């Protein structure tokens, strides 16, 4: 995993520890069964996997911190990637070209499955606010927001 992402997760964890919590409490690393299901789900919908996200969820399988939700691939989780994507796709057909992996108060974090770029979309309109070439770049921006 990218060093900066690891450092940001450590900072988030230290902040939570000050209040007796942990970002890792209910967010165990994804297991092989969950990863297999997620990978098949992606390939069925988009004909591609989402390896960058899988690498991240091997460390922490989603979390909610300071208004940032990173979706879990655990189907029983309150903020599962499956239910969240269904919600966004049902809201707007144009959003079906994205796989959403997180959100905050005003933003949606996603990957465009056609051009392979990553976007921060305005939560209200679905308009692109920022574009990134790599998952690491957009994840760093998302984690900074949680700090």
Q: How many strands, what sense, and barrel or not for the largest sheet?
A: 6 strands, antiparallel
Oligomer: single chain
* CATH class placement: Alpha Beta
Fraction in helix: 40-55%
Strands ordered across the widest β-sheet: 1-2-3-4-5-6
Total strands: the figure is 6
Fourth-level CATH superfamily:
SMI1/KNR4-like
Q: What letter string, H or E per element, gives the SSE order? A: HHHEEHEEEEH
Fold-level CATH name: SMI1/KNR4-like
CATH architecture tag:
3-Layer(aba) Sandwich
- Separate helix tally: 5
Write the layout of secondary structure elements.
Elements: H1 3-17, H2 32-46, H3 51-57, E1 63-65, E2 68-70, H4 81-91, E3 98-103, E4 107-112, E5 118-122, E6 128-132, H5 135-146
Helix pairs in contact: 1-5
Give a quick set of tags describing it.
alpha+beta, 147 residues, six-stranded antiparallel sheet, 5 helices, SMI1/KNR4-like, 41% helix
Structure in words:
With 147 residues, the chain is an alpha+beta fold. It has a single domain, classed as SMI1/KNR4-like, CATH 3.40.1580. The chain is 41% helix and 19% strand. It has five helices and six strands; from the N terminus they run αααββαββββα. The protein has helices at residues 3-17, 32-46, 51-57, 81-91, 135-146; strands at 63-65, 68-70, 98-103, 107-112, 118-122, 128-132. Strands 1-2-3-4-5-6 form a six-stranded antiparallel sheet, sandwiched between helices. β4 and β5 (118-122) form a beta hairpin. The protein is globular, with a radius of gyration of 14 Å. The two termini are 19 Å apart. The model has no long low-confidence stretch (mean pLDDT 93).
């Amino acid at each position: 995993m990218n060093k900066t992402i690891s450092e940001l997760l450590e900072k988030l964890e230290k902040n939570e520890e000050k209040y007796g919590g942990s970002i890792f409490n209910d967010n165990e690393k994804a297991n092989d069964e969950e990863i297999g299901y997620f990978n098949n789900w992606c390939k069925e919908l988009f004909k591609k996997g989402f390896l960058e996200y899988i690498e991240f969820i091997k460390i922490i399988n989603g979390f909610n911190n300071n208004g940032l939700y990173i979706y879990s691939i655990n189907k029983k989780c309150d903020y599962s990637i499956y239910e969240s994507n269904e919600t966004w796709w049902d809201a707007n057909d144009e959003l079906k070209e994205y796989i959403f992996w997180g959100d905050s108060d005003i933003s949606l974090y996603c990957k465009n499955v056609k051009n392979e770029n990553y976007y921060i979309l305005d939560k209200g309109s679905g308009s692109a606010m920022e574009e990134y070439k790599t998952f690491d770049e957009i994840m760093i921006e998302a984690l900074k927001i949680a700090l």
